[in-house]
Amino acid sequence: MSYETIARDGDLVQLLGRRHKSHFLRLKAGAVFQTHRGELKHDDLIGQPWGTLLESHTGNPFFLMQPSLADLITDIKRNTQIIYPKDIGYISMVMGIGPGVHVLEAGTGSGALTTAFAFLVGDQGRVTSYEKREEMQNLARNNLRRVDLLERVTLKLGDVADGFAEREVDAIFLDLPNPYDYVPQVKASLKFGGYVGMILPTTNQVGLSVEALHYNNFAFVEVCELLLRFYKPDWERLRPTDRMVAHTGYLVFARSVRERAAE
Question: Are residues 123 and 183 in the same domain?
């Protein structure tokens, strides 16, 4: 996604209402965006500076915005629960996901994390994603194509139990119900010093995963969870919102080493 100071024909844009209700669309000359709050002609959006306030033919306001990575992920079409931006950001920082990195994931799902990884590795990096359910892989493919990131991703249909064809991968992330069963496969494909990451809903699974990492020569194991609380932005009555995204999963990280660390 590359943007200039104005919206251009072919850009993916976000139309944001005053109450944060948003719509995403790909600008196309001659097209018309229709909603219950009125119509907007794409030709009236093309050439406008980002942040411009526009009105539909019924007078409803919309701000013309560039969608952020978090916007695209939370709007993604899904059949399963996605990993939230609050977790994705920390996962990416800890595992060093950036330009030129080759990151492998197992459990593509709807492609939310795949989208973030593809965005972060840049044109010189690579994302390889394994999924055993063809319908989920097709959904992820469509989601990646929608945001112009499919070319950075290699989607593979297969069972993680059979192992990964790739070797010397910089980082591997597992979004699976039983990642502890596949730690040997991770070890075979991950470069020494590289990161493995997992997300798990229960402490039972975390315990099994930590044990498997220990017996397969992984060190520097970390376990954490992230809580995020928003506040109502009223300067006269600033207070937390009534609802929050609290526990979404336990994050487990470790690094591959040549010899087991001392007890």
Answer: yes
